[in-house]
Amino acid sequence: MSQALRRIWGMLYRHLAMYRRSWPRVLEIVYWPTLELLVWGFTANYFMHASAGPPALTGGALIAGVLLWEVMLRAQIGVALSFLEEIWSRNLGHLFVSPLRPAELLAALFGISLLRTVVGLLPATIIAYLLYHFNILHLGPVLLLFFANLLVMGFWVALGIVSLLFRYGAGAEALAWTVAFGITPFACVFYPVTVLPGWLQPLARALPAEHVFQGMRAALLHHVADWPQLSWAVGLNILWMLLALIAFGREFRLARIRGALIAIGE
Q1: Residue 204 burial (CB < 10 Å; 0-12/13-18/19+)?
Q2: Residue 28 CB-density burial (10 A; 0-12 exposed, 13-18 middle, 19+ buried)
Q3: Are 113 and 159 a contacting pair, CB within 8 Å?
Q4: Which residues, in sequence order, are CB contacts of 66 under 8 Å at separation 6+?
Q5: Distance between CA atoms of 41 and 29, rounded to whole angstroms?
Q6: What is the pLDDT of residues 82-108, one digit of tens each?
Q7: Cα–Cα dist 159/6, whole Å
Q8: Which of 81, 132, 219, 242 holds its CA 20 to 30 A away from the CA of 174?
């Protein structure tokens, strides 16, 4: 083997070794094509058989779905990215030798995520009105409940990711951008849960988002507030948030014992 080929192989092996030791990187290779196929495949299947209402209302449901789902995505990414910035700046260890408590850190992360979500969605909401003549405020006061439920869902998904960062370190960074998008096919953002195969429907119904978007379609197409669906969303959010807080507390304690709060990101 010539010296040039040896050097090329050395660089190839370096990157292959990273994939060998990091399952999130391997997963990411097939993740996005599969995700796109699932989301738009289910959506196409729904529209081929849909007869729920006029095309204008169906199109409005799509736009509303995009805007509301961004609440969850922005909330999750806002928390996860803010936490990652502490890792990237090597500041995590410094934070926890200060009087700052984990609950106070979470409150700050949730607060900045809320601000990022509102600021990020405001221009999109205006554009939806100007270009597509869709005013999401027509959903009425129930819109606040949709927003709050999806925001809380974004928070507990982010807590799960932060817990994995405590355990796996920098190798799990890709999860900050992939996990929430991976939930999209099962959140039933653009189609009802009945479009999914029967064996996937219980998974979808275990997510607060499925109930939120069922309620959204009822508000748009039938002009009624589906309180049972919203009640399910609230109850599931409480359950998942409690589980996420337990996981966060456990992984934080283990990371502190291992000294990972200082070493993470190195």
Answers
A1: buried
A2: middle
A3: no
A4: 189
A5: 20
A6: 888 888 888 777 777 778 888 888 898
A7: 44
A8: 242
